[in-house]
Design a protein that fits this description.
The chain is mostly beta strands. It has one helix and eleven strands. Helix content is about 5%, strand content about 40%. A five-stranded mixed barrel has the order 7-9-8-10-11. A five-stranded antiparallel β-sheet has the order 2-6-5-3-4, with no helix packed on it.
């Protein structure tokens, strides 16, 4: 029987080269609100902004919630630095819930991110080679955790990496 999972923000789970996520302080747009686990991107003005759906650049990972805007133009905040060999555990999204399954078919495919109410997921309806498809599915989560994750879970979880092209991209 299919279980409907609660959609949660991504979690950093591992890196091929580091035992822990690299952490730095960055100057972020003070009008932003975000939740821990959301992806953030640095723009050409030097500030960091919250990634929206279909964002094509990803540089950082929010480590804490910013529930209310500070009203300041900019503030410093501590974030995780995203590298191409970092792996994140993320839910999948599809507008048709019954199609929001984490299957073997997603492995190796690039997808866009979906952001709704400060929660980030892999957008199964937006795949291919478009620039906005900045996430690559490595494997379904149930490969490593058959007790917590099932292949029949609605809004199931996958392990993803952010594409190097999305990390390298800087917008004006």
């Amino acid at each position: 029987m299919a279980t409907t999972r609660t959609v949660e923000n991504p979690r950093w789970i591992q890196s091929a080269t580091r035992p822990v996520m690299e952490v730095i302080d960055v100057l972020i747009d003070g009008a932003a609100t975000y939740k821990a686990g959301q992806f953030l991107a640095r723009k050409n003005d030097g500030l960091v902004y919250v990634c929206a759906s279909d964002e094509d650049s990803v540089h950082y990972f929010a480590l804490q919630d910013m529930d209310t805007a500070t009203g300041d133009e900019t503030i410093y905040t501590r974030v995780g630095v995203v590298h191409a060999n970092d792996e994140f555990l993320m839910n999948v999204h599809h507008d048709t819930a019954a199609s929001a399954l984490a299957t073997e078919a997603e492995a190796g495919i690039n997808y866009a991110m979906d952001v709704a109410s400060n929660v980030v997921s892999v957008d199964l309806e937006d795949s291919g080679t478009a620039a906005k498809n900045c996430l690559r599915v490595v494997r379904p989560a149930w490969h490593n955790s058959t007790i917590q994750d099932k292949s029949t879970d609605i809004y199931g979880r996958v392990v993803v990496r952010v594409l190097q092209a999305a990390i390298d991209l800087l917008h004006t």
